[in-house]
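Q: Entry one of two.
A:
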Amino acid sequence: MGDDGERQLSAARWKSPLRRSGPGTYTVAFGAEDRAVLRALPAQLGAAIAAKPEDAVFRRLFPPAYANDAIAEEEYRSMVQPDLDEARALALTTLAQTADATELSEEQLDAWLRALNYIRLWLGTLLDISEDEPEEEPEDPAHLLYYLLTAWQELVVSVMSGED
C-alpha cells in the first residue's frame, strides 16, 4: 500500500477529540492523559502568577497599554486590571473544572480557548519561543507541551468556526 496509502487510511480513521454536537454544544473525547494536562496546567499558571505577578515572564499576558507613559499605564491598570484578572481566572478555572467533561457549551469552549492561549503565552515566554521558527523544532517535553497546546488551540478555533 505504501506510505501515502497508509497516511490516507490513518487520516480517514482519525476522529477529532472535539466536535460540534449541536447548536452551541460540543462533544469532547480527549484521552485520560490529555485531560490530566488540561486539569493541571491552569492551576500551575495561577500559582505562578500568584507567586510573582510582576515577573517579566508574564509580560505577554499583561502587555502594557501605554508603554511610553507610566502615569497613563498606571491609571489604565487601576481601571481594567481587576476585570482582566477576573476574566483570566474564570477561563483557567473553567478549563480545569471541565477538563473531564464529555460535552461543553459554547461559553465553556470559549473559556478553553482563552485559557489555552494564556497557558501557551506563559509557556512560550518561559521557553523563549518567538515568531521566528527554528530550523529544527526542539523535542524536549516542555517544547512538545507547547506544540500540543498550540494544536489544541487550533482545534478549538477550527471547531468553533465550523471548520471541523
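Q: Entry two of two.
A:
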Amino acid sequence: MRRRGTTRIAAVLGLLGVLYGCSSGGYLPYAQRALPAAQIDALVAGASHDSHVPPGLVRAVLMAESAGDPSAISRVGAQGLMQLMPATAAACGIDDPFDPTENVECGAGYLHQLLRRFHGNATLAVAAYNAGPGKQSFTNHWAKCIAALTPVLEEVQLQSKAQAHMQRTQSQPHRECPGTTGPNKSVKSWLIIPCD
C-alpha cells in the first residue's frame, strides 16, 4: 500500500511537471522572490494538517503553480502561492490572496474538495485544480473514463504480474526439497518451494 501511494505521488508530480511545463513561463524550482524553504515547509505542514491533504501533494501543487513566489500572478489572473482564481479565494473568504498563510490554507482546502470529488484520485484532483473551476466539466468526463477503465487496467496489471511470476518460476530448475516427497506429500505438485 505504501509503494502504491509513492507511485501515485510520483505520477502526480509528473503530471504537474507536464502541465506547468506547457505554460509559457516554464518551471523554475524557486522564483526570485520565493519564500525560504523552511517557511514553505511550515505553511505546507499547517495547511496539510488542517485540510487532511498529504503534505507532499500540497507542496507539489504550490511549487508547480508559483515556484514558491507569494506575489505570483498568472496571465489568467490566478494569484499567490497556490495560484487561486479570484472566485476561489472569495469562496474561501480570503481578504488578501497574496497572504501566504491564507492562500495555502485555501488552496489545500480546495484540493481536499477535489480529492473527495474524485474519490481520492490525486491525478484527477490535480488536473481539475490546474484546469480551474470553469473547466471541470471536461475533467469530469475524464474522471468517468478513468473510473470505467480502472478495473480493466487492474486486471491487466494482475495478469502481467502473474505471467512474469510464472516465467520466473518456470525458468528455475525444479528440485525437490527434503520432506516434500513420498506418500504423505502435503505440497501440491504445481507449487515450487525454494529449499535455500
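A: Comment on entry two: Residues 28-146 form a domain with the Lysozyme fold (CATH 1.10.530.10). The radius of gyration is 24 Å.
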